[in-house]
Here is the input.
Amino acid sequence: DVKVTQSSRYLVKRTGEKVFLECVQDMDHENMFWYRQDPGLGLRLIYFSYDVKMKEKGDIPEGYSVSREKKERFSLILESASTNQTSMYLCASSSPGGADTQYFGPGTRLTVL
Amino acid sequence: QKEVEQNSGPLSVPEGAIASLNCTYSDRGSQSFFWYRQYSGKSPELIMFIYSNGDKEDGRFTAQLNKASQYVSLLIRDSQPSDSATYLCAVGQSSNTGKLIFGQGTTLQVKP
Here is the structure.
């Protein structure tokens, strides 16, 4: 079974803090994704990576950056957290050979005070 | 802007009935279609995918695809209270980027 893990299930941070969210997958997938999910807005793609050190902006990249130094690990960084970044953050991975099927981690509920 | 549309619901069905969830998409060249189930506070989990026109069955679930009408549906037979969740439709982009476009989801309530 595909396993995608995220570093925290719940996280509380203060405005202005630098926040790291980490995602690890164990299926040797090339593609990894970061989404945020908010009520009424659905899943929105923040960033996606199709290979080590490769990244592409999604629909809402402002205020976020990412890092992919190893194939299995994809990090989302909030450089200076703001209250409007309070959300559920979901990581997913997929393989081009798997016809786009994305597998999700458990999610991180981030609250910025 | 490529879109995936779902009725947000809630769709309420009695236990044992067939639940029918629908999704339309705008990218005519899309080749891959997915249904995810998401329980409240949890992450989406894949139920099934479909690539070809017609029906695909997996247990109590049947996905139906009509590319000409740009329409995909999910039927849940013998609905159970445990099926109560939000169902997300996702569509692969024709540009084959690996990205999926998600609908906003339909909330299903199965009443005992």
About this structure: Chain A has a mean pLDDT of 94. The radius of gyration of chain A is 13 Å. Chain A has no helices and eleven strands.
